[in-house]
Amino acid sequence: MNKRTNDGTWLRREFAMLSALIRSIPSAVTILFILAVITMNFLARITLVSLPWLALNAGILVSWLSFLLMDIVAKHYGARAANLLSLVAIAANLLCSLICVVISRIWDYPGLDMVVGGQWSVLLASTIAYILSALTNNYTNVAIGGRFRKNPDGAAAYAARSFISTFLSQIVDNFLFVFLAFVLFPYLPGALQVRWSIPQCIGASVLCAVFELLTEVLFAPIGYRIVKSWKARDVGRDYLDRYGARA
Fold first, then answer.
1. What is the number of domains present in the chain?
2. Percentage of the chain surpassing pLDDT 70?
3. What is the C-alpha separation between 121 and 137, in angstroms, rounded?
4. What does pTM read for this prediction?
5. Torsion of CA 216, 74, 8, 123, to 10 degrees
6. More confident: 107 or 115
7. What pLDDT is stored for residue 43 in this prediction?
8. Is residue 229's pLDDT more than 90?
9. End-to-end CA distance of the chain
10. Structural domain boundaries, residue 19
11. SS3 for 14?
12. How many whole angstroms separate alpha carbon 34 and alpha carbon 24?
């Protein structure tokens, strides 16, 4: 009985924290973040480049945006808040995928095959990869920021925590996704029948991580200005006062 009561209390506490966080983060950032995650996962099934040593999927075109926004949230609200927002985006992606599956079952429309064909394998691979990469990104971001004790809010601190965390998490995300979706899962029934080699997975993981790092470098000044603006305007003060920037 005590365990069940404690579990219920924990769930209520976590839900209250999530609710406060969603109210505190500017809605444009939350919406853009969720759209980036959903779009990234739908585009991931499309192979743009296929060479013996390299393969790239279309998810690379928008994946950088989700990690840029994740870095902004992790800097201002903490790693735990960024993790919670990532779970919200994953839940939205799962719901969107479920809707596509239902539509494909009700209406036998060939045009939907490109969207929902082999959906379970891509969805499972992307969900596993994104959860682990988000944890890598957010905790690395906060840990590196803690090293800058003299000026934790300076441009150098923001750049270091964003660039390093993005590069590491993108390698985790890219390799896990392509390995699961295009190496392991294609041998299972009903999976997307697109197969990559291990050299292609490694090449894609490194090249995509470099591309996404360069994109992060390009847009870091915008992210830094957003963080500075949020702090100057006390954005999310209710959440921060109650829960703090907890790691």
1. 1
2. 89
3. 24
4. 0.85
5. 0
6. 107
7. 81
8. yes
9. 30
10. 2-243
11. helix
12. 16
